[in-house]
Amino acid sequence: MTNISLNIGSESHHEPPTNWKTYFTFSTDHKVIGIQYLVTSFMFFLVGGIFAMILRGELITPESDLVDRTFYNGMFTMHGTVMLFLWTFPSLVGLANYLVPIMIGARDMAFPRLNAAAFWMVPVVGILLMSSFFVPGGPAQAGWWAYPPVSTQNPTGNLINGQVLWLLAVAISGVSSIMGAVNFVTTIVKMRAPGMGFFRMPLFVWAVFSAQIIQLFGLPALTAGAVMLLLDITVGTAFFDPTQGGNPVMFQHYFWFYSHPAVYVIILPIFGIFSEIFPVYARKPFFGYKVVAVSSMLIAMVSAIVWVHHMYVSGTPGWMRLLFMVTTMFVSVPTGIKVFAWVATIWGGKIRLTTPMLFALGALIMFVFAGITGIMLSSVPVDVHVNNTYFVVGHFHYVLYGTVTMGMYAAIYHWFPKMTGRMFNEGWGKVHFWLAFIGTNLNFLPMHPLGLQGMLRRVASYAPEYTFWNVLASLGSFLLGMSTLPFIFNILISWMQGEKAPANPWRAIGLEWLISSPPPVENFEEIPIIINGPYGYGQSEPLTANLENQAIKTAE
Amino acid sequence: MNIRLIFNLFLLMIGGFVITITSIFIGKQAYFWLPPQAAAESHLIDDLFSFLVTIGAFIFLGVTAVILYSVLFHRANNYDFSDGPHIEGNITLEVIWTAIPIMLVLWIASYSYEVYEQMGIQGPSHLLHLHNPIHIQAAFAEATETPAATEIEIETENEPIELEKINVIAKQWAWVFQYPETGISSTELHLPSDRRVHLALQSEDVLHGFYIPAFRLKQDIVPGKTIDFEFTPIRPGKYSLTDSQYSGTYFATMQADVVVETPEEYHTWLETAATQTPSPAKNQAATEYAQNHNEKIQTGWETVKPAAPPIVNFSG
């Protein structure tokens, strides 16, 4: 029983990561690939952050006086693209890559080489996007939505232009994500350790599973739209060209059919992270485990029928506006269930405010705020007013920074000892949290009044009456930029010379905490046999039947 | 019942009461976060928004209060390494907690639906295509409450009221307004107050968006299509119209003034404008394109050439 080989596609031997150079080579170890994803995406996070600060630098005054309009337009296009396709997606894939096989008791992903190939496409996407700054006419300037006909206008007349490179990058990123999704779904379905039924999987695995299913049905639409647009620009087809009978609104359908569910691809793993972190630091079992597991799948399903809420004012008929309003609002039901479950998990616990817990709590509070403004946006009449204004920008930055990035930080701190075998510095972690929490709110809260007043997104200059809130937002963005410094130093120094981490520094329950820190090459010498659910806090039963010497000893 | 439980229930009631009062207060404040209400539709939208803010504030404060209470009063002390109570779930509580959001969603959705139906901002052609019998009880009815509007005939189902028809043309990067009945054109949008106006929106090149924050109204303009759009301005004054759908390099400059005036002033304006000879209007995009810029960082990247400044009778 213990020696069943569950590694479907890996007959090759993995090289253990003996030194840091391993992380720059082609490796098929899911843990090495996970770290590669995390480090690469964080580099691009810094690039995207610098772009954001240039944007906020321009917007600190009403006039367009820092950078010219073409550069500004390129900046917001690249900021959005880099942050989505090179930070949030890859960083979460990296985390899942690292954790999912361990959490389900597998030795690796189902297809280790496919996994490595999917990762190495990320730097290619990054190089393509960055090189677009050096082609005549500069990078793409049509926003990360790339709506035609603006995106098909090509003033330089060159075939190789920023927009073409952008579309290639997005298409490659889509292929990479589809490869990842196939791998994750197969791994989770096929490679769970004996005894790990679906309802014994950690909630993070449930979340990743649901998110990757969205990738499978959604990404083909985006990739198809990108390819059609590429053909329109390069060889002169007219899928979206209204002067030749094409329909530009059709592109919006292709685009949003994936790009709204994409938000759930990003947020579901964060929900999973919350679900892993709260029980540990509140020392309580997860409240309502089954309902929350199922609610992830429910979100994945509903996500397929919400995309038109981005297009209420795009010339869609009234019935469509109202239909999609109702489906969009229904996303708040499974989400509300989750929020309730987290709050109930914390309630009455024995809470320890460690750095990961602080980040998770801060992210949860900001997520509740984002959820409320999300309901407002789903309501057609309110959306008619605030659509394409800073209200929307504020809303989704509360999702993407307040929740996703803060949740990512929580995850990195929480699993840092496991990944590196070293402890991080708790004091600097807290400094990082407070700078980031204050910075996020100072940056993104002022965007809501701006949007309600009517300030549009993507403008390089604005009416003077919007100055006050813009100055606050810009200061917030600079603070947010600074907040990454304590993180970088803490991580670098702790990784090199932090205190050695024990196997289970947080006394957490879960397979990843049964193995040494950092984990051995193929995770488990013996494949564990699971005999219990993943959140048995307050109960002294072991999690596995065969790893007694390492089984969790809960406090009496 | 022990003292502790009574105390907790008392605390919960007080907390609930404070949060309710605060939420209602915040909901009332919501009106001040918005621009002046210059169209009949804006009243409907603002009421809906205030309602959503009230509910939202209640949820946000409720959740935050519970989290803060836990963090403050359920902290483990330094030497306590024991676990919390082993509570895995509570079916009754979970059912209630699923039912509440469902009810809330249905409530919010039906209220939003009602408001949208009253707005009736999409022109009649959309309804015709769909054979949709939804009765558009236009927000115009709202406008009749203002004293100035009393003499205006009220719309009935069979007899649509006389609409003020205006063509709106958007291009990179200028707005042109044509008044087909008098044959004049302008780069400033003049509208009569307390009259339902019908706009035919057209774009000459890319997607644009018609957006007047003071009216709370927005509609994308798709090239190759004429989009009907209706509303009722009710408050005389000067407002700004902006392009709400990103339209390329000089997107931010694509602004126009909207002047709402009494029907008499409006007609006077139409007559005066008709006497003026058409001349090129001022256009910021064209000016910037021709000039050297004053930005600190200039890339010199090529841009789409702005359309020629529009030739109009009246330039704002």
TrEMBL record, chain A:
Pathway note? Energy metabolism; oxidative phosphorylation
Which UniProt keywords are present, listed alphabetically? Answer: Cell membrane, Copper, Electron transport, Heme, Iron, Membrane, Metal-binding, Respiratory chain, Translocase, Transmembrane, Transmembrane helix, Transport
Instruction: Give the stretches traversing the membrane.
Output: 37-56, 76-104, 116-135, 164-191, 203-231, 251-274, 286-310, 322-345, 357-378, 398-416, 428-448, 468-493
The source's superkingdom equals Bacteria
**EC top class named in words:** translocase
EC number(s) reported in the record: 7.1.1.9
Q: Where in the cell is it found?
A: Cell membrane; Membrane
Name the catalysed reactions: 4 Fe(II)-[cytochrome c] + O2 + 8 H(+)(in) = 4 Fe(III)-[cytochrome c] + 2 H2O + 4 H(+)(out)
Functional note? Cytochrome c oxidase is the component of the respiratory chain that catalyzes the reduction of oxygen to water. Subunits 1-3 form the functional core of the enzyme complex. CO I is the catalytic subunit of the enzyme. Electrons originating in cytochrome c are transferred via the copper A center of subunit 2 and heme A of subunit 1 to the bimetallic center formed by heme A3 and copper B.
Q: What is this protein called?
A: Cytochrome c oxidase subunit 1
TrEMBL record, chain B:
Q: Which InterPro entries match?
A: CcO_II (IPR045187), CcO_II-like_C (IPR002429), Cupredoxin (IPR008972), Cyt_c_oxidase_su2_TM_dom (IPR011759), Cyt_c_oxidase_su2_TM_sf (IPR036257)
Protein origin, superkingdom: Bacteria
Domain named Cytochrome oxidase subunit II transmembrane region profile is located at 24-123
What this chain does, per the record?
Subunits I and II form the functional core of the enzyme complex. Electrons originating in cytochrome c are transferred via heme a and Cu(A) to the binuclear center formed by heme a3 and Cu(B).
- Note how many cofactor molecules are bound and how: Binds a copper A center.
Subcellular localization is given as: Cell membrane; Membrane
Location, primary (coarse class): membrane
Question: What's the EC number here?
Answer: 7.1.1.9
Keywords (A to Z) from UniProt: Copper, Electron transport, Membrane, Metal-binding, Respiratory chain, Translocase, Transmembrane, Transmembrane helix, Transport
* A Pfam family hit: COX2
Top EC class per UniProt?
A: translocase
Q: Where are the transmembrane segments?
A: 6-27, 48-71, 91-109
Domain Cytochrome oxidase subunit II copper A binding, by residue range, is 161-272
Question: What PANTHER family does this protein map onto?
Answer: CYTOCHROME C OXIDASE SUBUNIT 2, CYTOCHROME C OXIDASE, SUBUNIT II
Q: Which family does it belong to?
A: Belongs to the cytochrome c oxidase subunit 2 family.
The answer to whether keyword Transmembrane applies is yes
Which source organism? Okeanomitos corallinicola TIOX110
Q: Under what name is this protein listed?
A: Cytochrome c oxidase subunit 2
**Gene3D superfamilies linked:** 1.10.287.90, Cupredoxins - blue copper proteins (2.60.40.420)
Membrane topology label: Multi-pass membrane protein
**Which cofactor is recorded for it?**
Cu cation
Phylogenetic placement of the source organism: Bacteria, Bacillati, Cyanobacteriota, Cyanophyceae, Nostocales
Q: Please give the catalytic activity noted in the UniProt record.
A: 4 Fe(II)-[cytochrome c] + O2 + 8 H(+)(in) = 4 Fe(III)-[cytochrome c] + 2 H2O + 4 H(+)(out)
